[in-house]
Specification:
Layout: E1 2-16, E2 20-27, E3 31-37, E4 56-63, E5 68-77, H1 80-84, H2 86-101, H3 110-125, H4 128-143, E6 163-166, E7 171-173, E8 185-187, H5 189-199, H6 213-231, H7 236-245
Antiparallel strand pairs: 1-2, 1-4, 2-3, 4-5, 6-7, 6-8
Helix pairs in contact: 2-3, 2-4, 2-7, 3-4, 5-6
The chain binds zinc ion.
Zinc ion is lined by residues 152, 154-155, 157, 174, 176-177.
């Protein structure tokens, strides 16, 4: 059995047995990785503190024939603000659920690891709805499943003013091409501006974002619908947001 050292973000935790957990890590070295952490729900376990969702950790994983097991884990960074504030927790969970459900284990993906590292502090400081949407939009972009928000997918013309968008065709449709689109939803100029700002968000310069709540609601609703269409199912964290925060997501 081989022991590997990883740097990772704890993407998800699932309880099993009396005190055990399956930990889904997003590692810098190997992409997503699932490993069992035995006894980690006992407060005396040396693993219990480190293996909490959203933590940035270093860990030693024993690579077994059937399952991987976490032997040691140390915290590099943790994001207290996410667990103390229900709204931040809900939106961070939404972003993490999208990343988890749209990635496959053992596919090295440094871009997504870096994106998680960059998004976590923003989720702690800024409006968490916007931070989660920035993270998720950028993730879809690097995963190659993003809609084309800028040009008409039928004629290639840059979209100006109000237009339509087709989830099935994969992006914006100009008013001249509407008859060729498989499915058409409204794509007002305000919504396009939101997506342009989110996708162009500069982590270092903290791009100033100027849109109103109505535009944000419309963009968020559309984006969630799109992600659920790709997944072919509902995002659990969206139900949580609707039920407990009474937010439109
Ligand atoms: Zn067109």
């Amino acid at each position: 059995m081989e022991t590997i050292k990883v740097e990772a973000i704890v993407l998800k935790t699932t309880d099993f047995g009396d005190a055990d957990r399956v930990i889904t890590l997003f590692t810098k070295e190997f992409g997503k990785l699932e490993a069992n952490a035995y006894g980690c729900r006992r407060s005396r376990s040396p693993l219990s503190g480190a293996l909490q969702m959203f933590n940035h950790i270093s860990a030693q994983v024993i690579h077994g024939a059937k399952v991987d097991t976490i032997r040691e884990a140390d915290i590099i960074n943790f994001y207290d603000a996410l667990t103390k504030d229900l709204e931040r927790l809900a939106y961070a969970s939404l972003f993490f659920e999208i990343v988890n459900r749209m990635t496959f284990p053992n596919e090295k993906d440094r871009e997504t690891f870096d994106l998680l590292i960059k998004t976590l502090p923003v989720l702690c400081k800024r409006n968490p709805r916007i931070a989660a949407l920035i993270g998720a939009c950028k993730f879809m972009e690097t995963s190659g499943v993003q809609l084309n928000f800028i040009e008409c997918i039928h004629c290639g013309k840059e979209i100006e003013g109000d237009a339509a968008v087709s989830i099935i065709d994969g992006g914006a449709v100009c008013l001249d091409c509407i008859d060729f689109a498989e499915d058409c939803r409204p794509y007002p100029e305000g919504m396009r501006k939101v997506f342009e700002m989110l996708l162009g968000f500069d982590w270092r310069e903290n791009t100033k974002l100027t849109f109103n709540t109505r535009q944000l609601n419309a963009a968020e609703k559309f984006f969630i619908e799109y992600v659920q269409f790709i997944l072919g199912g509902e995002l659990k964290s969206v139900n949580f947001i609707r039920e407990f925060l009474d937010k439109p997501a």
